[in-house]
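Let us practice reading a record.
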Amino acid sequence: MWKNVGYYNGTMGPLEEMTVPMGDRALYFGDGIYEATCVANRVPFALDDHLDRMYNSLRLLEIPFTMERDQVKAELQKVIDAAEDSPIHFLYWQISRGVAMRNHPFPANTEPTLLIYVKPHTMKSMDKPYKLISMEDIRFKLCNIKTLNLIPSVLANQRAVEHGCDEAVLHRGSRVTECAHSNISILKDGVLRTAPTDELILPGVTRKHLLALAREKGVSYLFEASVGGGIPILHPLTECMAANRIDEVYGILNGTTNYILTRMVRTGASFADALREAQEKGYAEADPTADVEGIDAGRKTCILADLAFGRQTDPAAVPMEGISHLDLKDVKAAEQAGYRIKLLGRAVRLENGARSAYVSPHLISEDTPLANVEDVFNAVVVRGNATGEVMFYGKGAGSLPTASACVADVMEALQSGARRTPLGWDPDPAGFVDPMELSGRWYVRTADSADRAAEVFGQIQVLSEEDGTVFLTDEMTGRKAAELSAGLQTQACLRVL
């Protein structure tokens, strides 16, 4: 047995004597993922949860690691058992893409590498005050992957140490994301607050167990302001419509993009000009990426899907398409045909109980209430098996609407306490269907003639033959629409609600 045990691709020995090839991509790209946990009496804490996250991180980074879960467990246990006795050990493991000459693209014919180490560990006291410093979150936007790229976190922790603090709380604008090396949750007045799981935070294992404990103890976990700002949507969805089976939730979830689209329709402004106007009025951030690329709407769609269907939705599985590619030609063509283009987040329950969710621009008939939601307003439509469609409409952002939702959460927690049905959901990765498998009609603009378009798509509804052809298809899956569009000189392809 050794005090500190090292392991690399099947070779094990004292950690201080282990070596790693200089060509391992972990060294010069940080091209890999890692996991870490504590071991008590040679039993790792929540190992299955860590392995779930590990395999998800590998999938998202496209690292072709083929070792089965049971084999990984066996290798980890082998290293744990080789360590000298200690009440608590620290267990760390990482998987890189492999050993290859330095070149940015994925190398061919390389095998991923597995590195493990175990060392004695002392748990920090949890009953002492912790000092915190706040900093802008400058990490790249794939924080849901536990990658080896940790320099921003290293710098944040260094700033914390320099200021005599224990941790750095990170924020992106007004939104608190997490800490430099931990999730953050706040328990106050019987209400637990934490950030929603999206690409801006790591889905922490401890966080998962904390939420389960909160549910068990009757602690309210409320986050009304996270979707729709001042629109009361989450409480009605989970309480007022509890007698329904929710089959679909969709809507306009981002005021910035809705304002831009409204200006494009009303004034004929280009996307760039409408965005500039939104920034001047304070509706859009200096960096509008999260809004105009559908990321903000995607996060909110995941929350709605979680609560509507009672199953956790992985944001990485939800395609998020924004409006930055929209051409004024499509806005005008849609309007002339009696439609409006809106950026929608949509979550649906399929006949077999499976679920799907996505964000993308849609053509909506101008006769529907949703099509007439304009400027910075939001609207959410919930379809229940008993109520049919119910729409919630109002201001989706702003200090007062957001404050209204937050205060409402606090009041509800104080009034209902443990009597309130706790929110929660279970993982269900097998139940999520790729949105490209969903069927619907499609709007297509192509440089080809109408005859050529009909030859490829079959039955079509031609909207315009000015400078090419604009048409609507019959119902088909997104995958089929993409396949057929590839056979034309396609310039735009949008869903029709």
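A brief commentary: Residues 173 and 234 are 24 Å apart (CA to CA).
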